[in-house]
């Protein structure tokens, strides 16, 4: 299946007119480093013009799901029919306790979509941000995500994660005839589509750093293979033929290598392949199960899990192999480690006490924190800002669903995709 590249031109110059005060240092902000964050009341009225209401709705949904913002219902708004080039009636917004206000205007002329928006600090009555986005009309959802990212960054000080996609395994049917298809969607569950037809089982899809390539494992009756799939061209190719079962592929940060595991006679080891030369090398040689490799953001190290100590624990080694050191020492089994894009944490699945948990720890193994607990939580993946994780959760009698949790464990909620899914992998921010 071929996915269309979304061309999006962006004008990043601050919008201003002589009738408006200049941008100023934010008097209003969300301190995301506090232990308890009170969501900021924010007003996002429908933008003027064609699809203005839909764009405001997407922005509202994105910011609300982050758990850091509390959008005020539009039924409470006093000022109506706002002009993006006219200063808001701030007393009206203060009276409903809006601390921030986002308003905008959409125009479509000559097949070109233009969206102007402004972000206001209601109590200081100052403009914090004003940007113009241009694109084709069918890209209006991506424009909404771009605006969401800009507002999130201006008010939290961290990059957003809304203009992204998630690749995952869509599951349907009963347990004895489960159909597993490679699927992709926007991070808010919109535009879901299938990349495989379900005639064979797929597992562990992962994005490259360019967001244009996916690697995944396919389990066919005649064996397993690792595939590379180009979203732009639709080209699909196998990574190579290996004696034994291959699984758990993951790109290096520069996209030039793929690390994976090969299982032979009950023993599995980690390999890495250079995608240009297609030469591969073996990184581990222990008589135990080593799997789930994940590169550090600078590509110099790999975290993986191994049962060489008697139970599955997390280890870190150099990206060329060697120098392995154990970093997890808790009770239970630690699996599916994945390094955060910021390098600050390693997320993992932990099984102990009859439950599964999603947790994080520092790369040296310190500061372990359990974020979720349930009948079956597994397979974490990081949003590109390293603030939010997506994972799959299964409850007895129900199919697996995708969930999200932030690094504090406080903001836990189902992902907006309505179907069953496992093995999510979050893309980097789209270009």
TrEMBL record:
Residues 1-26 form the signal peptide. Its main location: periplasm. Residues 29-128 form the TolB N-terminal domain. InterPro entries: 6-blade_b-propeller_TolB-like, Tol-Pal_TolB, TolB_N, WD40. It is found in: Periplasm. Part of the Tol-Pal system, which plays a role in outer membrane invagination during cell division and is important for maintaining outer membrane integrity. The Tol-Pal system is composed of five core proteins: the inner membrane proteins TolA, TolQ and TolR, the periplasmic protein TolB and the outer membrane protein Pal. They form a network linking the inner and outer membranes and the peptidoglycan layer. NCBIfam families: propeller_TolB. This is Tol-Pal system protein TolB. It comes from Phenylobacterium koreense.
